[in-house]
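Protocol step 6 of 9: fold each sequence in the batch and record its structure tokens directly after the sequence line. For illustration, a two-sequence batch is reproduced in full.

Sequence one:
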Amino acid sequence: ASDSAGAGTKIELHLDYLDHPMFLWPIRDLELAIRTEARGLRVEKIRGNWAGVPIDGKVEWLFLPDERVSVAVSAGLPSDRPSDPIPKDTWARGRFSVGRIAGERWRQSAARGDFEASADRVRIRNLAIDLEPSGVVDANGRIHLSEVDAVPFQLSFGLKSGDAAAIAKVFRLPANQINGHVDLAGSFDGILLPDTSLYAALRGLLNVSARDGLIRKKAPLVAEASHASETQEGFDPSEVIRYRNLETILEFFDGRIHTEAFSLDGPKIGVLATGDVELLSEDKHMDGRVALFLFRKLDRVLGRIPILNQLLLGTDANLVASYF
């Protein structure tokens, strides 16, 4: 996202408790209201109970033109009421919400979730993100904080009715090459390392299901299929391939993506493909096999005629197919 993508974003945290050695004593019912700015951030509200003493305060942390931190904290009268014991297996538990983010690659109207910290692990649960212009993400994850220069993580998520063009931006795909509606379901584990691509240690599966859209023929995913189809009599000369359904399961490992079955069903052409994409190379080298199915309207008509559909269309339900 652009540098100013999160400027003006509001973040709210409510911790039932925070019991970490760096704070000396437990903090209970801690409320934080944070607003990001282009020059830094402001903690507009700090409210809680620290070792039985009510606290209230604000923080201003600016990075430009020079780094500057301003803190104002006040304390009230201590309470004699005993506090509930803090669970021994966790040192923090609470919930959070994040307001609108309007970045170049990531746009959301709101996000919310729960978190819990124990030992060197932080778990994120029930994360829900309302994307712009459409789509809702549900996710759960875990990060490990035991290593100094690496952050191992696990993530599982689902997306319903997302905007394919917006999701393509998130994955750094070229702009304006695909649109439509997309559902995703994924499960990953990986390691965040400084100066290292996320894909280097990423492993997992991503189920992709898109519908009612188009893909420009210059898109890497279909460019080879488009060039190959130019020699076919039924080739569509327009600059886009329209599709009704697009389905695939992508496997991420060793800096690569592999698919056993990429399928695209459109009104004029169908595509089946299998292959690999090298994610760590600059040109994103692709190696695979592609099957093109032409005369889709005729296929559908013949498919409705008993016996004749088996004789003419065969097992792949297509009158004309080319393989590359």
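Sequence two, same batch, same settings:
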Amino acid sequence: LMAGGQVWAKRHQPQNTIFFLLLLTLVGLVSGAFGGQAAVTSNGAGLMIFQGLTGNPNYLGMVAAASLPLPLYFGFMQRNRNRIWTIVCAVGVLALAYYVWRSGSRASTLCALAIVVSFVLVISPGRRVFAAVVLVGAVGAVVVAAPEVEQGVWQRIVVKSATGTDIFVSRRATWEKTYEGAREGGLLGLGYGVSAGYTDFDVGLTANTYGREKGNSQLAVWEETGLVGLALYSVLLAAILFELLFGLSRLRGMASRAEAALLIGAVIGLLLQSVFEAWWTSPGAPESALFWSVVGVVTGMLEQRTQGVSAAASAPPAFSSLWRARAGLSAEKVWSPR
């Protein structure tokens, strides 16, 4: 998947790299739009949550959150070119954000926030301040004018319960079992796919019924591959994030920086989501496929678009400005519908 993402990025440079998310975005919009009232279900703690056509609220939230980069980017690029497309993208972003909210998925909310924050951070300092002021003002207005909305946010997103106050009530029991399994795994782990104390396996074409729910990727890695595997996992993630952030710092041109920041935000968001969902040890999980695809695309894009910057740095002074001009020009090319 990572290699496939890199091939996509290199063959579609410098245009349309982020459009590999088009199908996912359409699935997210359709899944939320046509769920209907029959897709509303109770989470067992007094809250009504929405699962759309996916059959699972957390899955709907993940799909909707991971779909945000494309409309955010395309709307941003079309803001001074095509008002109709800008409005369409704005509506798409609002719809996807609404589906994340209705799903009641805290993990997906974290993923969406990581994407949006990464996007805002590439904007000029003046716009960052403006965005921060607007955000603080909006939150303050909600608290003052509509305390019931504040309560709704607390119940739906923070504690995910209409009756209790325990923030981790829906995950505590699962995490405790996984933590005990991780301690049993010790240094080398119990083995890939093994769940401590679980021997009743349902053989089929899905991993959903294989072993017990672990609810946390990091504890699952520890349980199955031990502290050695957890250390290697940490080194791998640190290397990936360093490569992505270093590549982002070398990019020139707002279009390229915005595109890369949104995809890096998706990578970080999926890692935050993995704290609540143990998809890292399940290679067939949708989150796993999406994570490695995004990593492949963004690493391929950064490699391709920073080649001109590297060449400019090593070129003689008389030619460095020409290299930078060429790199900046190619990075700013964006497909525009007619």
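Proceed to step 7 once all outputs are recorded. Observation for sequence two: The first strand starts at residue 40 and ends at 42.
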